[in-house]
Amino acid sequence: MAKLRHIAIAAKDPDAMADFYVKAFDFKIVRTSDGPLAYGHHLSDGTIDLAVLRFKSDQIGKGMDYTGLHHFGILVEDVAVAAKRVEACGGRHYMDQAEPDRTGGFEVKLYGPEGILFDVAEHPWTGTEPLPVAVKEAAE
Amino acid sequence: MPKLRHIAIAAEDPEAMAEFYKKAFDFKEVGRPNGHLADGVFLSDGTLNMAILKFKTDQLGKGMEFRGIHHFGVLVEDVDAFSKKLENLGASHYIDQGQDGHQAGYFEKKFFGPEGVLFDIAEHGWAGAEPLPAPIKEAAE
Q1: Do A74 and B25 touch (CB under 8 A)?
Q2: How many Cβ atoms sit within 10 Å of the Cβ of residue A118?
Q3: Residue A129 sits in which domain range?
Q4: Residue A8 has pLDDT above 90, yes or no
Q5: A43/A56 Cα distance (integer angstroms)
C-alpha cells in the first residue's frame, strides 16, 4: 500500500517555525533547501517529512500570502503507474520534478478532488521511512 | 520521539474525496466521525490517519468555505506534559476533546502553533494509525 510520508506547511518565516517543531517535538532538520519552488526546512520524525516552506509561487490558488497546511505527499511503488491511476480516478497532473535525477522530494505533483494538491514519489523523502519491505519487494 | 499520525482535509464532499483516495492509493476506510466539530470519513494507510472532513465551525479563521489541508496531528507520550511544553514555546491552546465526553480515536487537544497553524496532539492515537514505537512507549510508562 502507498504511504503518506510528507506534509508541507506554507510559512512566512520557515526558520522560526522549524525551530518551534524541533523544540516542541524533537523533530530533526534533515534538509534545508532553497530551490525554484520554495525555501525552507524539512523536518523528520523518523517516518514522515514535515516541510516548513516559504513558497515562491501560488501552487494552490490561495494567494502568496497564504499560510497554513499546503499539500501532502505519498510514497508509491511506481510513480508512473500511480500518476496514471490518479488521473484515471479524476486527478489532474500539475508538474513534474524539474531535475529528474533528484530524489528525496516530490517527483510528480497532482491535484485531487476539490483542488487538493499532493505529491507522489517512489524514492523516500529525505529522512523518512521507505515503503515496507514486503510491499517494495512485491513491486520489484 | 513524538510521531506525526494524522492529517485532516477540509472538504465540501468528504464521501467523494474519500472514494478518490481509496481508489487511487488503496487507503482503507477506518471510521465515520460524526461530531459537533465535523462529519466525514477516516482513512488509513496503516501508519497515518487521514481525515476527510466537512467542518462545522471555522477553526482556522479562514472562513467556512476553506477547502484544503486543514491541520495535522502528533501522537505524544503524555498530553499534559506536551501541553505545558507547547505553551511554554508560545503555542496557544485552542480546545480539548472530551469537553463533551471523550471519544477514543480522535485528537485530545488542539493548539495553534506559529503563524496560526493548527495541530492536534493525542496520546491514545487516531483510528487506524500506528502507535508509538514500543521502546518509546515503554520508556514513558
Answers
A1: yes
A2: 25
A3: 3-139
A4: yes
A5: 20
